[in-house]
Amino acid sequence: MTATASDQIRQMVNFILQEAHEKANEIRVKTEHDFNLEKQTLVHEAKLQIQEDFQKKLKAASVQERIARSAEIQDCRTKTMRLRDSLLQTLREEAGSKCAVVAKGQQNYPQLIQKLIVQGLVKIEENDVIVYCRAQDVATVSKVLPMAVQEYVDLMKRESSVTLKPNVVLNAESNHHLGDDSYGGVLLTALDNKIKCDNTMSSRLGLVYEELLPSLRAILFPEA
């Protein structure tokens, strides 16, 4: 082989090696670039996921805090309402005790019983009526019942020109007397208890209490 042929072969080999090195370098550079790009993408996505998870946890914590605060406020309101209702109930019970005092040994109590019976007869509008009262009021009711019936008859005659002959009797069964929690007064029934007129002191107190309840709340709890 001549020197010229050897030189040409050497040049071709060097050229091929140069091309190979350049190609290998190009592949290495591209590979590193793709790797770095992929790494940046993964890191960015990981950061976004972490931020998203953090925002979700932050939002959940905020929601839980609002729920806890709302529950605490509601619990406070409930306790306040219970306390106020307890106070109002105490006032009602004290008023009931005073009603019981009025019904005990007061000179005007018989007249009050008579008026309550007359009012009950007007409301109930029945001929056969049974009157119930407390055991300790039996004597008082027995005494004023005839006068109450006569007052009712006179009233109806004056108002409607009709003369009634009502059959109004006092309950004779001791186990059916009104309890002490009625605070006095009377209960009138007709048609086998199908019609009732509750004119006990407790019932009248309840009506007054319900009527005055808004005013009582405004006076006792002006900040509400």
Descriptive notes:
- This protein has helices at residues 3-102, 109-124, 138-160, 201-220, and strands at 128-132, 167-170, 185-190, 195-200.
- By secondary structure, the chain is of the alpha+beta class.
- A 4-stranded mixed beta sheet has the order 2-1-3-4.
Main pleated-sheet profile: 4 strands, mixed
Bulk shape: rod-shaped
In oligomeric terms, what are we looking at? single chain
Give the end-to-end Cα distance, rounded to a whole number of Å: 117 Å
Structural class: alpha+beta
Number of strands: 4
Mean pLDDT: 84
> Any idea what the radius of gyration is?
49 Å
| Strand order in space, largest sheet | 2-1-3-4
Uncertain ranges: none
Question: Topology as H/E string?
Answer: HHEHEEEH
Number of alpha- plus pi-helical segments: 4
Strand content: 5-15%
Helix residue percentage = over 70%
Blueprint (SSEs and pairs):
Elements: H1 3-102, H2 109-124, E1 128-132, H3 138-160, E2 167-170, E3 185-190, E4 195-200, H4 201-220
Parallel strand pairs: 1-2
Antiparallel strand pairs: 1-3, 3-4
Helix pairs in contact: 1-4, 2-3
